[in-house]
Design brief:
With 782 residues, this protein is an alpha/beta fold. It contains 26 helices and 23 strands. Strand 10 and strand 11 form a beta hairpin.
Length: 782
């Protein structure tokens, strides 16, 4: 392996990546790190020259020279990267002295350099290069990257807000996320104005993008939402539901400009040039020119530039028909990108891009050969491509979301024929805005493969067990890596040597054990899981991590109070409990840990009760209403029935001027019909808890109290003393970063002799009503 040129350069990538990660994590040490590395480079160069001049030329000398050259290249790459971080340190220090980390109000003039994208909270965010920072009447000239975030409702006209535009954002500054190249992030809470629209080639690219989106928006269905994304990576039309389905089915990479998109564009340019009998040099130039134009159209933001670099690497590997050469160029490309942009070391997107390209170069061929033992070679190749990417990228994706897409490879196989068609025809539609009739016709043609992809994503996401919950963090990534290695060994097959056959046998046994244990756990926590729950449960606190999702059942009618943070985790709980239809969905408030899983309830909910809604909450309610649910805002004094039980709203007070959020959470009293007297406090803090107590609406004692805000320290002790709970439910995630539940509220509950049930320790918690009162059952602990 190490005889291959590509493998020899792996240490260069490893050193460059490690140095970059250390430099951006500890920027104050970047200067000293750079100085040390430059010293090593000098010593390595001198040693290399001495060995070359004074030693005889034989195999050992050549090996020593190779090692010395690799050390020199690796340390030089790290030295340049550390130097870049050190050179950026003075400007960062200057901004720190200005107090921008303290939420100070300021105005920033900047040029938009990244795509304007909608985030999960419905805000708009984009990368920009700041030129002037004004704090009060004092202006400071700067030149550095920033992130601008603004509420979408604050921008009525987005036509001029695009790459190349000059904007002035007024708001408050806050630190960018750790490891970001951005100097800071500004929340443009007061005003964002475009002072100069894009000009020149940027204006042309903006014009092409906007006309494609407008043309696609006139078509029906989910296919129309995907057209701009498949063609140019613009996801402005993609709804939250389709976005979640694309992620669950591992197809979201199709709507991001990846190396595959760029390689497809370059490949077409190569073919056209070849048909014109152009020389190899002319074909390369044509490919580069077309790729540059494509990058300009889809916006030359860092992720797109990375994708273009990876595409060039992949194309070189294919053209040279040598995996080793392709891997060498990949290592060189990754090293150069890290050298000139050290902050890429903290980018999971960059890691995924590099890993996927390496997987195609290294794993696709042996997987194809292995699968060809059982399948036609064409099908084996079609399966090997997504499978190789899944094996390498899966462990990295676990760090984002601890779930494994079960049907990801199959979904990619089904979508594979349609994706290039949609990309090529959609891109052609983008380039024909000068002829609206032609553009609309091409967009209509693109709608067909786009609808196929959307249908594939939604079908895969709706299949039973579409995503398998997985262990979180590095442990989960390491476990999935081990399983991927075992699967690779089994699929590639055994060699002639005894140890190779034993390795395949061991890998097969390991996979069988994992499949058996994992399949059993999956069944017990989903479709067969109802057999593991008490048959007569009336309250079920789902284990959905750091969030609330509580089922209440009376006379076969179901209420769900909040949805937790993740649709997959909520779906697992609903399936396990045998819940198909939800009669009443209560959204206490609209923080992500209470409504993030709402996608799992769309299309199966009859009535939605909610508190005051934020702008992003209004979008959630619109999605529920469009799916057929009756949506109603509730306030204190309202009541109703759930089967044979009754519910009352105790909070918030009608006409309250309090802002939507924790302190306007819907508080419910539920009792009767087999449901133990229950008080659910949402995320109320101490002040509204005190107001609730003094309003004299509580009817204690309560058999069950859902403790407010996951057991935070901000509690009003007298309320719990008055409620006198027999059982206290604490809905918390394991090892959550908030320290919930806090020792203070646990001590209060202990003093009240309440039985404490925590979802982080007990898993799913069920409560049943018996002749002797409410009884509790835990997943873990009985």
């Amino acid at each position: 392996m190490w005889a291959r040129p590509g493998a020899r350069l792996i240490p260069v990538v490893a050193v460059a990546w490690s140095v970059c990660a250390i430099a951006i994590a500890v920027p104050e040490a970047a200067r000293a790190t750079a100085a040390c590395l430059w010293g090593i480079v000098f010593v390595a160069l001198a040693t290399t020259a001495w060995v070359a001049m004074h030693q005889e030329r034989h195999a050992l000398t050549r090996t020593i020279l190779t090692v010395l050259i690799l050390i020199t290249i690796a340390t030089a790459a790290g030295a340049v990267a550390a130097t870049n971080v050190a050179l950026a340190a003075p400007l960062r220090a200057e901004l720190t002295e200005l107090g921008l980390d303290d939420g100070r109000a300021l105005a920033v003039e900047a040029t938009v350099v990244g795509k304007v994208e909608r985030r999960a909270d419905d805000s708009l965010a984009f990368d920009a290069t700041a030129s002037v920072i004004a704090i009060g009447d004092v202006e400071h000239a700067v030149h550095g990257p920033i992130i601008v975030r603004v509420e979408s409702s604050d921008i009525t006209d987005r036509s001029g807000l695009d790459v190349g535009a000059v904007i002035v954002a007024r708001g408050t500054a806050r630190p960018a996320y750790e490891g970001s190249r951005a100097l800071f992030e500004i929340a443009a809470s007061r005003e964002l104005s475009v002072v100069a629209a894009p000009s020149g080639v940027f204006a042309l690219a903006s014009h092409l993008r906007q006309h494609l989106v407008e043309s696609a928006s006139r078509l029906p269905g989910y296919g129309a939402e995907l057209i701009p994304g498949l063609a140019i990576g613009d996801t402005a039309l993609v709804s939250a539901g389709l976005d979640q389905a694309m992620k669950t089915s591992s197809l979201s990479h199709l709507t991001a400009v990846s190396g595959a998109n760029c390689a497809l564009v370059v490949g077409i340019a190569f073919l056209v040039a070849a048909q014109c009998c152009a020389s190899r040099a002319v074909r390369v130039v044509c490919g580069l020119v077309v790729l540059a134009g494509f990058v300009l159209i889809v916006t030359p933001e860092p992720s797109v530039v990375r994708a273009a670099a990876m595409a060039i690497v992949a194309m070189l590997g294919v053209l040279l028909a040598r995996t080793g050469a392709g891997l060498a160029v990949l290592c060189l490309a990754v090293s150069l990108l890290l050298v000139f942009d050290p902050w890429l070391a903290a980018s999971l997107g960059f890691a995924l891009s590099a890993a996927a390209t390496a997987a195609l170069l290294v794993l696709a061929r042996p997987l194809t050969n292995g699968l060809a033992r059982w399948l036609p070679r064409a099908l084996a190749l079609a399966l090997a491509v997504p499978l190789s990417a899944q094996l390498v990228c899966g462990p990295l994706l676990i760090l984002i979301a601890p779930t494994v897409p079960i049907y990801g490879v199959l979904a990619n196989l089904l979508a594979a024929p349609a994706a290039p068609v949609a990309t090529v025809v959609g891109l052609a539609a983008c380039l024909t805005s000068w002829a609206p009739w032609l553009q609309d016709g091409l967009v209509a043609l693109t709608w067909l493969p786009a609808s196929w992809i959307a249908g594939t994503a939604r079908t895969a996401a709706e299949l039973p067990g579409s995503s398998l919950p997985w262990a979180e963090g590095l442990w989960g990534a390491a476990l999935l890596t081990a399983i991927g290695v075992a699967l690779f060994v089994v699929l590639v097959g055994a060699g002639q040597r005894r140890w190779q056959r034993r390795l395949v046998g061991l890998a097969t046994i390991s996979l069988a054990v994992v499949a058996g244990v994992g399949g059993g756990v999956a069944l017990l926590t989903t479709s067969v899981g109802r057999l593991t729950l008490p048959a007569d449960w009336s309250v079920l606190a789902c284990d959905v991590g750091q969030g609330d999702a509580i089922l209440v059942r009376s006379a076969d009618m179901i209420a769900l109070v909040d949805t937790g943070p993740d649709p997959a985790l909520l779906e697992r709980c609903l399936t396990r409990a045998g819940v198909g239809e939800i009669d009443i969905l209560v959204l206490t408030h609209f923080d992500t840990d209470h409504v993030g899983g709402v996608e799992a309830t769309i299309g199966r909910t009859r009535t939605v009760l909610h508190g005051p809604a934020t702008p992003e909450g209004a979008l959630v309610l619109d999605d529920l209403a469009r799916s057929g649910a009756l949506v109603s805002q509730v306030h204190a004094g309202m009541d109703g029935a759930l089967g044979d039980s009754r519910w009352r709203v105790l909070w918030p007070i009608a006409g309250s001027s309090a802002a939507p959020g924790n302190d306007t959470s819907v508080v419910l009293d539920v009792r009767g019909g087999g449901v133990p007297t229950m008080l659910m406090l949402g995320d109320l803090s101490a002040a509204p808890q005190q107001s609730l107590l003094t309003s004299d609406v509580l009817k204690p004692p309560y058999a069950v109290v859902k403790v407010a805000h996951h057991g935070s320290a901000d509690q009003y002790t007298a309320l719990y003393e008055q409620a006198a709970p027999s059982i206290a439910l604490l809905t918390v995630g394991a090892d959550n970063r908030y320290g919930h539940p806090r020792d203070e509220i646990v001590a209060v509950l202990d003093d009240l002799d309440a039985v404490i049930a925590r979802t982080d320790l007990a898993g799913t918690v069920a409560v049943t009503t018996t002749d002797f009162g409410a009884q509790i059952w835990r997943d873990r602990g009985g």
